[in-house]
Amino acid sequence: MSAVPDGLTGRSKELADLLVSLGQEHLLDGYTPEKGKTFFEQIGTLESSYPGGIKAYIESAKELLAASARGDNPLEGWVPSVPNGEALEFGSDAWCENEAIGAVEAKRCAFVLVAGGLGERLGYSRIKVELPTETVTGTAYLDYYVQTILAIQKATKSRPLPLAIMVSGDTETMTKEMLAANNNFGAAPGQITLLKQEKVAALADNDARIAVDDDGAPITKPHGHGDVHVLLHSSGLVRKWANMGIDWVYFFQDTNALGFRPLYATLGVSKKLGLHCNFLTVPRFPGQAVGGIAKLDNAAEGKSMVINVEYNQLDPLLRSTVSPSGDVAGPDGVHSPYPGNINSFVLACKPYASTLDKTKGVMGEFVNPKYADATKTKFKKPARLECMMQDYPKVLPAEELVGFTSVANWIAFSPCKNATADAVGKTPPACALSAEADQYFHCAEMLRLRGCAVSKMTSAETWDGITSDILSPSIVLAPSVAVSYTDLKTKFPAPDFVTISAASTLVLSGDVTVRSLNLDGGLVIKGTKNAKITVLECLVKNSGFKRVEAPDDAPESTRIRGYETVKGDDVPVLDLVGPGLFFVTTDPVTKQLTTTRKPDCSLS
Ligand code: UTP
After folding, report:
1. Structural domain boundaries, residue 578
2. How far is the CA of 116 from the centre of ligand 1 (A)?
3. Is the CB of 114 under 6 A from ligand 1?
4. GO BP, one example (predicted)?
5. Is the distance from the beta carbon of residue 361 to the nearest atom of ligand 1 less than 6 Å?
6. Pick from 51, 70, 89: which residue ends a domain?
7. 106 plus 50 within the same structural domain
8. Residue whose C-alpha is closest to residue 292's, from 275, 276, 267, 309
9. 277-292 core/surface letters (b: 16 or more CB in 10 A; e: else)
10. Binding site membership of 117 for ligand 1 (Cβ less than 6 Å)
11. pLDDT tens, 417-474?
């Protein structure tokens, strides 16, 4: 009897024939007509979502599984060196020079958020992008990202800058609902595009036989964030962006609100060095569990590439080639000479579009089977091919320039990835509390570097086992206040007249310029986009905000951090609705904040 069930016609018959021709007839073993529609829909999705279909996937899987069983070293023959790039100190002249270049380029930038991940380590039951970046304003990650893009658009006077969000079956519905419920956070119709990644087949053995569950359905698993390149190609988005004059594409991940602060400087480096791919990186400590960006040369094959080398591969690679002592500090005696990858990078849009035309976005894949025993023939659980978005440069010819921009960690990277309980003892904890603390800290630190007198907290706070000494002062400068350090300087033109105590909480949102402020407590000033606000001679003292233990019935997003933030009754909240010029001062007689408004026709 043929393995293809009788009575199949049309697309179902074609797919059944395909499975048989690929040695996957076991998938048809338990076939019943009742299961037929769903079964062939699943097979059809596997066939259509992978470039080259199931055949290409199985062929690639067989090769990679064989290499894995042989124990091949994928980096055999490659010699590492430090690639071309620029290390920038926040606020330095070099930083500001690159920001000036980036400020011109930003009006031609598109954005790609990869948000299809399950977030198993975080253990939050919903999508990560709905979590608050901090608990003073409760601004969700997705809101913050869109706010940033709209602020860049306003600052550069550009048309709507496109944002693509990669979602998966795990995140699609909730992401759509969140955008719809919030009117796309103010983005223009069509400005945001959702791209859905599909899962790939899990494999039961070295012959790449597709694993099935108890109901006979194929088991599928996530293919990784590298899918984003295939989707950006198959949707035609990158080609469309290139045709409409977009020059740069910035890729970033779901829970790193700091990722935009160095954007202008990074775009400046991309433009100045003519980089096809520019990794935004942070200094890496030797042995740190963070990949390093390295130039790899293979003399025998006459090849060269700049890529992220995973930390567990970097040490053996260095030992076997240029550095017998392995992954050790470089010339500064502290950091690895190989900058640390944070999975944020800028691609030059037109060369990227041309590369996608050639490769269809297919990335180098890898497989990581957990073998049941030394024979390496059985797996403990089904394996699947995976791909990572930062591996993109692997498909580039050597003449395409790939480099890095290295900036301090505090201004670029603080993701919320780990459940609080698992984060205890980890450095950095990369949990909700540490991400929130870094969100406040980077604003406080930017103001300090500007010359404002911003005190530091004198004793640390601990919530659910995570301790931080940078949670206060809790300063939130919304993206609408400044999208670059150069912008921020103009918003704080007289830093000698700005003093913020360690116990303070300050929230500024909108076009706010602070000329003179002495804050010991809480202050919230929010302006609509046509309100131009100046803070003059403000002396504010009140009970401020407090972090208190999260009540048992608090929402899950609060419970996962253990605390919530509560505003004191005497904290002024100014919601200033334009159009108009607003001046906020402290009345010398009543000591109360007063706001005067002057109409300004140019702001309507
Ligand atoms: P993470 O390393 O944070 O993985 O992904 P994750 O799957 O979200 O979380 P864990 O490992 O289960 O805890 C880095 C970025 O890549 C996205 C994530 O949403 C995050 O922004 N990602 C990851 C995808 O978009 N698709 C994937 O298949 C995997």
Report:
1. 426-598
2. 6
3. yes
4. UDP-N-acetylglucosamine biosynthetic process
5. no
6. 70
7. no
8. 309
9. bbbbbbbbebebebbb
10. yes
11. 999 999 999 999 999 999 999 999 999 999 999 999 999 999 999 999 999 999 999 9
